[in-house]
Design goal:
By secondary structure, the protein is mostly helical. The chain is built from four helices and no strands. It has a single domain, classed as Ferritin, core subunit, four-helix bundle (Ferritin, Up-down Bundle), CATH 1.20.1260.
C-alpha cells in the first residue's frame, strides 16, 4: 500500500507544481472560468498531497520529496495550451488513483475513488472526451 501512496504523492507533487505554473499563465479577467478551474485544482491537489503525506507518516514511512521542478506536458502560452496541460495532469492523476484504489481499503479507498472521479470530471470540464474507465 505504501508504494502506491508514494506514487500518488509523487504525482501530486508534480500536479501542484504544474498547476502553479498554469496559474501564472491564466488571466482572471480574460479567462475567469479557466482561472477558477486552475485555482481550484491547485488548492485541491495541495490538499491531496498533504493528506497522502500524513498517511505515509502514519504508516511510519517517509514521504517521497518533491522534485525541484517538473517538465510541463506542453507549452503554456495561451488558454488552449493551459487547458491541454491541465487535462494531461488530470489524466495522469486518474491513472495514479486507479492504482491506489486497487491497493487500499476502507476510508483510504473511498478517498482515492473520490480523487479519481474528481480528476476525471475536471479533465472533461477542460475539454477531454469522457471515457468509460478513467485511469485505465
Amino acid at each position: 500500500m505504501t508504494a502506491a501512496m508514494q506514487t500518488a504523492l509523487a504525482g501530486e507533487h508534480a500536479a501542484v507544481w504544474i498547476y502553479g505554473v498554469l496559474g501564472g499563465q491564466t488571466s482572471q479577467s480574460a479567462e475567469p472560468t479557466l482561472y477558477d478551474e486552475v485555482s481550484t485544482a491547485y488548492a485541491l491537489h495541495r490538499s491531496r498531497r498533504d493528506q497522502l503525506m500524513r498517511w505515509i507518516r502514519d504508516d511510519a514511512g517517509t514521504p517521497v520529496p518533491a522534485d525541484v521542478a517538473y517538465e510541463l506536458p506542453n507549452e503554456v502560452r495561451n488558454p488552449s495550451q493551459v487547458r491541454t496541460a491541465a487535462r494531461q495532469v488530470e489524466n495522469r492523476c486518474t491513472s495514479t488513483y486507479a492504482v491506489l484504489i486497487s491497493n487500499t481499503e476502507s476510508t483510504r479507498r473511498d478517498w482515492a475513488i473520490r480523487a479519481l472521479v474528481d480528476a476525471a470530471t475536471r479533465e472533461v470540464r477542460l475539454g477531454a472526451k469522457p471515457v468509460a474507465m478513467p485511469g485505465y
